[in-house]
Amino acid sequence: MQRGSDRLSVHRDDEMKHELQGLLRSGRPTRTEEWNDPEPFADDDPEVAHGPVTPGRGPTSLESVRLELARTLNRGSFPAGPRELMRALDRRHAPDALIEGLERLPHKARYDSVQELAEALTRTRETETA
Fold it and tell me: CB of 71 within 8 A of CB of 53?
């Protein structure tokens, strides 16, 4: 029986599946063009391999917190206060440590960007540990 829009026969389809089966099970990239392979991590990328980024973690904590906030929040989230941002982070399933960090911020504060929010989060973490 001929299928409606197939250019090849059923036998050729099965033959091609059999040819590709080894490549797909090998665990190696199946692309022949090098430009199409995923790019490896750079040395200066923030460390996110050990779980979610939390305020005050590591020497590049400001950059790490800003990266995590930028992944979760969008421009439409600003300007906003801590309560609005907590709801936005909760809706987008952000790490609990970021939401808990927002709970420690002053309730009447307003933040116009991710940078301002990240600075405030890292600043409150530094004052708590000092």
Answer: no
